[in-house]
Batch of 2 targets.
Target 1
Amino acid sequence: MIPTPIRSVVLQSTRRALLGSITPKIPVRTLSTSTHNNTNTHSKEVAADSKFHNISHRLFHYSSYGLFALLPAGIFLAPNAQFIDLALNALIPIHSHIGLTTVMYDYVYGAARKPAKFLLWIVTILTAVGLYKLNTEDVGISQSIKSLWVTDPKAQKN
């Protein structure tokens, strides 16, 4: 076996030799997030958007960790998982909203972005209300998910 540093050098030089002439040169545009001595309003917007993106990116990943832990725990503990169901009631809409906002910023442009944001907020609010009603007036999120794998209707009541 070839040691890792030597192997990576060999692979890189081979790739450059084989693909160097046919690989297109794609210019990389960097956006400055610094507002120091800069009167350009675009840079200020990028800086503010970058701060928001950083916070929402972290919240998205932390909600992923929460969903990763709480969903199996809720299914295992159902129907006695009321606190887990309430946590899922908060995490699912937050995680979905941030993820769909990212998709919207990637694929919706111009004047269509404002109505898309509004529609996304409506969907997020309806999701949160629906999950709350499922938790308070029905069996709960965990028991609903667990019931997808139960085949015997008599066993589902337990």
Target 2
Amino acid sequence: GINAEYMGAVLWQVILLIIVGFVIVIIPFCMFYYEAYDPDNKGIFSQLGPAVGYTLMSVIVFTAFLLLLWYTVGDVDIKYTAYQAIMRNETLIDAYVPVCADCKMQENASLMFKCSIFVYAIALMAFVGWILFVFFGGIGLSALPIDLVLEWKNRPIPMTMIEYGRKKTKIGQASQRLLDKGDKIEEECRKMGGKMSASLKRRINEFKNEVAVVEEVFRKTEIAHKKQGGSPWIAWAKLVMGILGVGLSILWVIHICIYNLADRHPFLNEMFIKLDATFALFGTIAYASFTFYLLWATIKGVLKVGLRLLFFEVHPMKVGDTLMNSFLFNCLLVMFVSVTVTQFSAQSFRPYAKQTAVDSLFITYIQNLRGLGYIFHYVQYVLVIIAGIGMVLVIICPAKKPET
């Protein structure tokens, strides 16, 4: 009913406002707070002052940028087809079957109005999220399923004490080389007085990536010997998820091409509607699975790019061994991309989720914003292209084995 629709719209506004608060205020404050930590000055105010100052600066810059764009180009331009007609009197008998005596059609009519500041703030977040989603999500659509299959293939296998000793010797030698390399980098950082050049930053990122690889080799070695390869169910579950991931990635690319870009067939929308006809929750579960898969692929793309491109710092997530800034970075990434994925899913599955609060917000308003609306449509071509390039690169240039 009307009340349910209104409550749904309010709920979406509350959720999106919370996301804006986290992205603009809470997460940046926490990141600045932990970055300001100084072991020589352990007072809380030594961290609190810089964190508050930098957060206020970021909020002021974002607000000024938002107000400027909203005032200048924050208009919604909804295209529609206008009809002019003279109706016959008998049509009053059946309003659902009108008879048009003299119909005139006027093409390319439009309804233009200023959107709310809230809608434009969400649109800006979606725009930033698209930059991340197109690049990392496009790569992740190919890398995620392939890496899951490779993790099954390269799973730890039971090893004898002799093999374990040889492997630990190699790990020790690699660790010693990394310790020496880390000492040299630390000495260079001291000489530069905290100001790092671009080449030094690349070396630091390379060092962090090499440490992550050695740690992963050590973890698998311990599992191979002490746990005799670990649980086979986990490895086989990764294979199953990898195979399912291949199907999901292929279906997503096909759906984008034939529905989002070409508008030839509803494809996945038709499947969701038929699943709902079978059981009410089946379509919802399928919708959620395809949506959350995009978030997972984006996180995978970040890790994949970070291990390959030395100018980008990788932020791995490990249970019980994740730095706070890495955790906050990934939270910030997920917050941005979640808005974009929500918009993209609303656009991709509009026949299934039509006339909902999210459809009105992201499709009726944000999708028709001047300037940004065109970007939101044509950036999907870039997503498909990067997904194709990522698939070729992952197959032709797979990740190096940790032993190398």
